[in-house]
Amino acid sequence: MAQVDVGWGNELFIRGEGANLRWHRGIAMENIEADIWQWCSERLEEDLICKFLINDFTWSAGENIAIRHGQKSVMQPTF
């Protein structure tokens, strides 16, 4: 999950490696509250590395995020 306000009409995407993520094309996250976005995968059998993007174009600031297998996380990316 990510907690971030991406602005009206924008979407949050996730890219990375592991659990069917790719670095060259993002997957749209589901907006479940005004500033809460979630992405779920049934293929979380391994650790993953990821980063968030607004509209699959603008990368979040900072280093890539590492999430361990089985861990639930709420990230607060900045742009």
Structural commentary:
With 79 residues, the chain is mainly β. Helices cover 0% and strands 37% of the residues. It contains no helices and 8 strands. The protein has strands at 2-3, 12-17, 27-28, 30-33, 36-38, 48-54, 58-59, 65-67. The strands form 2 sheets. Strands 2, 3, 6, 7 and 8 form a 5-stranded antiparallel sheet that branches. The protein has a 3-stranded antiparallel sheet with strand order 1-5-4, with no helix packed on it. The relative contact order is 0.32.
TL;DR?
The protein is mainly beta and 79 residues long. The chain has no helices and eight strands.
Give me the count of strands: 8
Question: Termini distance?
Answer: 16 Å
Q: Provide a count of the helices.
A: 0
Largest sheet: 5 strands, antiparallel
Helix content: under 10%
Q: Give the C-alpha Rg.
A: 12 Å
| Shape assignment | globular
Strand content: 35-45%
Class computed from helices, strands and strand pairing: mainly beta
Model regions low in confidence, pLDDT < 50 over at least 5 residues: none
Strand-and-helix sequence, N→C? EEEEEEEE
Average pLDDT: 93
